[in-house]
Structures are given as C-alpha cells and as structure tokens.
UniProtKB/TrEMBL annotation:
Pfam families: HTH_1, LysR_substrate
InterPro entries: LysR_HTH_N, LysR_subst-bd, WH-like_DNA-bd_sf, WH_DNA-bd_sf
Top-level taxonomy: Bacteria, Pseudomonadati, Pseudomonadota, Alphaproteobacteria, Hyphomicrobiales
Signal peptide: none
Superkingdom of origin: Bacteria
The protein, known as: Transcriptional regulator, LysR family
Amino acid sequence: MTYEQLVVLHAIVTEGTFRGAAERLHKSQSAISHMLKKLEAEIDMVLLSREAYRPKLTPAGEVFYRQAIRVMQQMNELGSLAKTLNATQEAEVSLAIAATLPLQRVLEVIGHVRAKFPATHIHLSRESMSGPIERLLHDRADIIIASMDGVPVEQVEAVSFADVTILPVAHPEFEPAQSRHMKTIAEMQTYTQIIVADSGSGALSQSRDLLPGGLRWTVTDFAAKKEILQAKLGWGGIPEHMIIEELARGELVLLNVEGFQPRQSRLFQIRKRDRDVGVVAQSIWDDLMASDS
C-alpha cells in the first residue's frame, strides 16, 4: 500500500468518477483504475462498487476511506515537520489574503512573527475570488487565506480559519430597497449590480453572487464598492464586518433578492504540500492556527 494509492482513492471519492480523478491528478483513466485495483488486491477488499455510473464506497470501503484520510493527514504533518527541521530563515514570506476577511487576526500574527524574525520581509496582498489560489499554485504565495472553491485538495494542506457573512445591500433610497417583498431576478436585471473584479488572471476564474443577465459595474475593491452603493448607484454583496456602522446608521439596508440571501463564506488557511517550508512561514502557519484559541 502506498501514499499515492490513497491519493488516487481520495480523488475518485471526491470527484465522483474515475475520469474526474484522472483529470485532477493528471493521469490517464486507465492508470487510475489500475492503481485502485492494485490497492484492492493488496488489501483483499473491494473499496468501490462499480455497478452504477458513479463509483460508490462499499461499507468496508467507507471504514477504510475514513482511516485513509487520517493517515494522509498524518503523512502530510510528518512531511511538514521534516521540512521545518531542515529549514532556514527566509528572506521573504508572501501571504495572499481574501479581500473579504477582516485583517486583525492576521496582522496580530504578522506583528508577533516579525518581532522574532526581523530580517524577513513580509509581503501581504489582498486578493479577490481566484486571486489567492492562483498565487499559491504559481508559487507566488507561501500561505493564503481563501475559500476552497476551485482548490485542488490533493495539492494543498488546508485548515478552517474564519467564517465571513456576505450581505446584499443598497442605499435605503435605491428603488429596490424601498419595499421588503422579495425581488425576482427579472425585476433586478434593470438595476446595476456592483461587483469586485477577480484579481486572478482568469484561468481559475470563480463567479459567485452574480445576477444572470443583469447590468454590472466592476470595481477593484470593496471600499470603492461601498462608496458606489452609498451614492445610490447600485446594489451588491459586502462582508458584514465592513458595513456594521452603515447598517446601524441606516445608510445601507438589506435587500431581499431571489437567490441572493445573506451568505456565509468559510475561509481556510492554505499552503501547498510540495513546497519547502521555511522557519518563518512555519511560524506564521502555526500562529494563524493558534490565533483563534
């Protein structure tokens, strides 16, 4: 039994098909099938039922898979430990943080780490949508904090970090905000939705909370978006922590739009499994994990 065989099993289960697993792992479908059959032969157990279109874990496979996930996690932790023990202090550590996240916890960690490693330059960028994961996968960030949308789970280590609530809002004098009944998508298509641009190149583009067929105005950051909403020029979703005071003063109000109710977004601290870990990056990683305790 090998770690790679467990990775293949995990990819089949999470993707739902052998083809999906092959695409994720950049292998042929026949290679994926062969590796799973070899694993099943070695342990003398059928892990996946192939009777339906989508392979399904057998009862024994369910138990084996749960344990396999724990083993994979332990292997990743062991690998991280080995890299840390051989690590030296880096000249620079790069972080890419989702624009929706409050920075207080992150800044407290950076301040603490800088005091221990003053010679290391910390590069912090704020990114939107696919921006953080693109920077990570292209080795332009050591650690990111972002959602798991579009993240190749077999390539990364991820730990839950924070939940952010996104609220659809507008100025109280903006026409759709002047009544509380639920506005249909068709009704809202004539009103401009303000959206923050994806900071990625587009190769991993993510799209969330976009009104189909509606008018749009794209900006680069949430500060500009909030100013536009306060100027009564459109509507859109903004993280709750950015508009607490405006909501309390009645300068912005919640909208009731079909398919655009308040949404909770879970963010994770994420790093690549195959990237060397320096002592400063490891210190930041550990302190981020401990920052909510």
